[in-house]
Amino acid sequence: MRVLVTGASGLLGRAVARELLAGGHEVRCFQRRPSGVAGASDSLGSVTAPDAVARAVSEQDAIVHLAAKVSLAGDPAEFDLVNVGGTRNLLEAARTAGVGRFVYVSSPSVAHSGTSIVGGDALPADPASARGDYARTKAEAELLALAADSDGFRVVAVRPHLVWGPGDTQLVERVVERARRGRLPLLDSGAALIDTIYIDNAATGIAAALARVDSVHGRSYVLTNGEPRPVAELLAGICGAAGVESPRWRVPASVARTAGSLIEAVWQVKPGVDEPPMTRFLAEQLSTAHWFDQRRTRADLEWTPAVSLDEGFRRLAEHYAGEGSADRS
Amino acid sequence: MIPPLLDAGGATSPATVPPAGLNGLDPAFSRVVRAPEAGTSVDRGWHVLDNADRLAALGVEPVGTILCVHGNPTWSYLWRRLVDAATLAAAEGGDAWRVIAVDQLDMGFSERTGARRPLARRVQDLGDLTDALDLDGPVFTLGHDWGGVVSLGWALSHPDLLAGVMLLNTAVHQPEHVSIPAPLRLALQPALLGLATVSTSAFLETTLSLAHPPLPASIKDGYRAPYRGASRRVGIGGFVADIPVDLDHGSRAELDRIAAGVAQLTVPALMLWGPRDPIFSDRYLDDLLDRMPHADVHRFEGAGHLVAEDVDYVSAVLTWLGDNIRTPEEPPAPVALPEPDRPPLWRYLDDLRDSGESAVIDMVPSSGPGPRVVSWRLLSKRVRQLASGLDQIGVKKGDRVSLLIPPSADLVAVLYACLRIGAIVVVADAGLGLKGLTRAVRGACPDHVIGALPGLTAARALGWPGQKISTTTLAAPARRALGVSFSLAQLVSLGSDEELPEPPAASDTAAILFTSGSTGPAKGVVYTHEQLSAVRDALAAQYGVGVGTGLVAGFAPFALLGPALGARSVTPDMDVTSPKTLTATAVAAAVKAVDATVVFLSPAAVANVVATSAALTDEDSRALAGVEQFLSAGAPVSEPLLAAIAALMPSATAHTPYGMTEGLLMTDITLDGIRDAASASGPGGVCVGMPSGASRVRISPLDADGAATGALTDAPLVTGEILVSAPHVEDHYDRLWLTHRASRQGGVPGERWHRTGDVGHLDDAGRLWVEGRMPHVLVTANGIVTPVGPELQAESVSKVVRAAIVGVGPRGVQQVVAVVETSPEARRVALANPELAAAIRAAVDVPLAAVLVVPHLPTDIRHNSKINRSALSTWAEGILSGGRRTAP
Q1: Looking at chain A, which terminus has fewer C-beta neighbours within 10 angstroms, N or C?
Q2: Which residue of B has its CA nearest to A116?
Q3: Helices B313-325 & B737-744, crossing angle to 10 degrees?
């Protein structure tokens, strides 16, 4: 198959592109900067530019859409433009070009109202109750994509939860960076169970969704390792792999949520260069359980994660050790 | 006097159907039926719920009719779920029951007649209606509150149609010596009656407030719908005024007719009872059972007057009806070995009546210096005197006698006296705690209570029923204050001629033993004389206990059987409410007192005996060296603990049997046996050895949802619920028909098989392994996990003292969590540190989502060993969802 991967300059996009290449597909990557994925072709541009999008989708059989504005803060209009508008541009261009398959890479936060998720399956995306502009716009875009599903244009949404791995700047780097500066608190007891997904598993899961889209189109699937752990253990695992001190000080979740709301409000008025150190969304994420029923995902996608959590930590440690020795050399 | 407000001349209005939109009520079942009123020329309009049209539309023929009669102040809305469920079952191919739920005249949406309708009239009214409906048999009646009485009146007048009666909290008789329940007495004050019932909605609102848990507002509105406005509530006042409070009351004769007639009913009967009822308390259930001893009864602990709202009475009703209309399969000729003719429990009291040898020894008698030695001669005589005395004060065969006496020679004498005259002894362990004990005594509804001072004080304070008899002679004021009628000394003197009634038959009920309550509310387990004798014989055969054996009985259920075994028994000095306080020195003293060769202890006691063994003197050790059999009964004991106590009794074979209140000795294993089993491979768990004596063990395999639905098997290495059968397995649960029925499910017809609620497997050698409790089975995305195997693996980690394996999350995708006690003891609840978590994860062969450390795991009070994993699981789920870190 000829597959267009959008957002292939990100960690997950690159991994998906490589996975598809390894699966024998012909891959074109679409993003603003060269992807650097060996064996794939690049089509440069932004999803917000309809012309660039039309060029990118031409002569493709399928699209895996990852490109998005991912941030805890920022101008709401910017989220709408990239996440909703970009998806709309892609969907329109894809149908015009006669592309038959579309994998929308979403997030479990599209259906999350801030309470615990304890062994739940994927619920319908709900922009109205989603927390923050990222989740809201991802939810709107997922609804757009699934609304476009038909027998001739098969759309599936997959929602990997907390992707991490070597080279990950979204989760791992933030954790390690804050821990290094001693600015990473545990909320409450840090016992909330959280399921995550190792980068390689996310890539194979997304590839599986593409392979199975003819059977599963119109639906949404959460992708995780299926190994929930207390958030303190996850943070300690990441810190341990990076060789930095694990978080030791604790903050009540209620305080963090309140602080998060306040900080968000301040950032709105006077956006800083850095992201806010705490947001309400992050406080909720770190203090409530988030783990999922993976039975439908695994059965429908005929997929199981190959890399266990512990193996993931080992690979992460190897990555940091390699970095360290590279620094020394 | 009937207040004017309630008298004839009240407003009249025709019957209607209910307004649309009442929660849970399907308008399609409602219709108005006109029925001529017998003896008059008027027609009456009735609102009824009736699923006949729906069944006809489904093209199914009803198997019978359920005629439902509400009480006061409800209406047919009470039965809405039954109408729905019966119709749904018919639509799904199940039994098709026609359900007719009436609104009595002047009630619900039926006609307001403006006339008084005393009980006899109401019974006739219902007959008028069923005539008009041209009702066909078989009919099962179902009544609640005063509707129960009306339904029974109808039942007595329609023997041709009647197939059975079903009752929810009701009464047919006000016992002479018992006063009318206070709330009714209040409402019946002439000055208050009209006010409470008609001009205000107080009576209605009070009734609606009796639901446990409280009713949602929309359901309350459903009940209120026909009673908005005083003129609509005249029937409520009329019903209350019709309660025959005294002998002169106009409805007294009809009530007495019904009460007497009920005692002649032979049709199947079901009673579903909510004991938290300020009106129809357990004593009315007891009265009904005296009249219909064949009835199936289920008391829903925690439910109250509105039992139809509090619990799923619908399934109970439909299940019971299903059982009753299906001709039970002819049980195959019993294949079991012919029952041996077992001597009665009091055999040795007769055989050894002239023996001067000691029978029972009290280490710490309640009065006088210890030890107190009672010879067979004295015990035998005392039992005969007490039996005769009890007989003379009117304690009859079949009466229930609650024993609130600490283990002692007194207890033994009273127990055997009761058994001898056929009175049913109700025995609840003080270890249940006062709350559990109250629930147990109330539920068993004893006719008599024999107790020591603390027991009688509790009985008085908590209003336990029954005639009271004290173990010691009390001063007159105390006697009066506690409502005590007799003392044991009086009974002995009354019975000095030792004249005894006929002994009970082997099939008569002998005892009701209460379960520990470690697995839910304590349940009364009923044993017949034959079954209790079989318990004795199983013990005798397994441990070689017989005439002349010195027996230290530190485990309550077995302590009572000493005299039945012919053994010389002693209860060691211990606080019975806290077996874990027993010391090694106390055990040695007891061993010396009876020259014991057999020692029975509870598992909770074993640990403390080992912990206090340093205090043993050389003389103590020499006495312990004479012990030949040591038994820790009640819950499995670990190999190291059993080895530690065995070391104190070097000549003894150490046993730990497997059993439960429902079957006291089902398998047995010795310390050597445990060591042999350690090398076995399989699904894990605790090896409890081979079936003992005549016991048989089978497994009902688990399905993918963790339910034990498989056919019984003795195939090795198949995990499922453990079922046991033996001559000494219980007869049934007391007043828990549903529980009893469930405990017999899947057994072999014609044989008595008991579902233990334990999960486990058999191995190649035929040994039984216990893997946990059925409600504690985890269903993960990768399949079933039973807790005990992984718990033992976790406990193999050096810092772990005790571990519990629990599931969090929804069944089917549960995550496995280990909760552990550590050494040194943790100061507070926390996630295990990384090293400990890693060690436990490495030791346990299922993936663990989390490892939590707690200072103490919550255990049952009786054994201090059974962990309530269900509660622990709820607690762990709270913490692991980000909840507060409370102690479990």
Answers
A1: C
A2: B881
A3: 60
Q: Which residue of A has its CA nearest to B781?
A: A295
Closest CA of chain B from A176, distance in Å = 18
From B347, B408, B412, select the one nearest B379 (Cα to Cα). B412
A229·B850 Cβ contact <8 A: yes
Q: Can you tell me the distance from the alpha carbon of B613 to that of A138, in angstroms, rounded to the nearest whole number?
A: 69
Identify the helix (H) or strand (E) that includes residue B821. Answer: strand B815-822
The two structure tokens encoding residue B126: 């219902």
Shortest CA gap B242–chain A (Å):
55
**Are B781 and A118 in contact (CB < 8 Å)?**
no
- E strands of A115-249, at which residues? 117-120, 154-160, 163-164, 186-187, 193-194, 197-198, 220-223, 229-230
Contact B409, B381 (CB under 8 A): no
CB atoms < 10 A from the CB of B328, how many? 8
Sign of the alpha-carbon torsion through B294, B300, B305, B309: negative
pLDDT for res A326: 45
Cα-based distances in Å from B316 to B70, B86, B137, B168, B311: 18, 12, 21, 11, 10
Domain that includes residue B479, residue range: 341-348+357-364+372-528
pTM of the model: 0.88
B831 contacts in chain A (CB < 8 Å) = 189-191, 230, 232-233
| Domain edge (last residue) among B528, B556, B578 | B528
Provide the residue count of chain B.
888
Q: Which two tokens stand for residue B530?
A: 């034959």
Q: What is the average per-residue pLDDT within A309-328? A: 80
Mean pLDDT by 10 residues, chain B (888 residues): 47 94 96 94 96 96 97 97 97 96 97 93 97 92 96 97 97 75 72 78 90 95 94 89 79 92 96 92 90 95 95 97 76 54 94 95 84 95 97 95 90 96 89 76 89 87 86 90 93 95 95 77 92 94 93 82 94 78 94 94 87 95 95 80 93 93 93 90 88 95 96 96 96 94 89 94 95 94 94 94 94 96 92 93 96 88 69 91 80
Based on the fold, state whether residues B285 and B425 are members of the same structural domain.
no
The ipTM estimated for the assembled molecules is 0.89
pLDDT of residue B5: 47
Mutate to test the interface with A, among B779, B828, B831, B873 (most CBs of A within 10 A): B831
- A187-202 average pLDDT score: 88
The verdict on whether A134 is a catalytic residue reads yes
> What is the distance in angstroms between the Cα of A195 and the nearest Cα belonging to chain B?
10
Closest CA relative to residue A11, chosen from A278, A202, A218: A202
In one-letter notation, the amino acid at residue B844 is: V
List residues in chain A touching B: CB distance below 8 A. 116, 118-120, 187-193, 226-230, 232-233, 236, 240, 253, 287-289, 291, 293-295
B886, closest residue in chain A (CA to CA)? A189
Q: Out of A134, A198, A221, A320, which one is annotated catalytic? A: A134
Helix (H, G, I), strand (E, B) or coil at B77: helix
Chain A positions touching B885 (Cβ under 8 A) are 188-189, 191
How close does chain B come to A270, measured CA to CA in Å? 32
> Closest to B831 (Cβ–Cβ): which among A226, A233, A289?
A233
Among B472, B496, B528, the domain-final residue is B528
Chain B residue nearest residue A299, CA to CA = B781
Assess whether B151 and B26 both reside in one domain: yes
> Does A193 contact B881 at a Cβ distance shorter than 8 Å?
yes
Based on the fold, state whether residues B765 and B866 are members of the same structural domain: no
Residue A230 main-chain phi, psi, to 5 deg: -60, 140
Least CB–CB distance from A229: residue in B812, B849, B882? B849
In terms of CATH, what superfamily is A2-163+197-226+292-306? NAD(P)-binding Rossmann-like Domain (3.40.50.720)
Question: Under DSSP, is residue B699 helix (H, G, I), strand (E, B) or coil?
Answer: strand
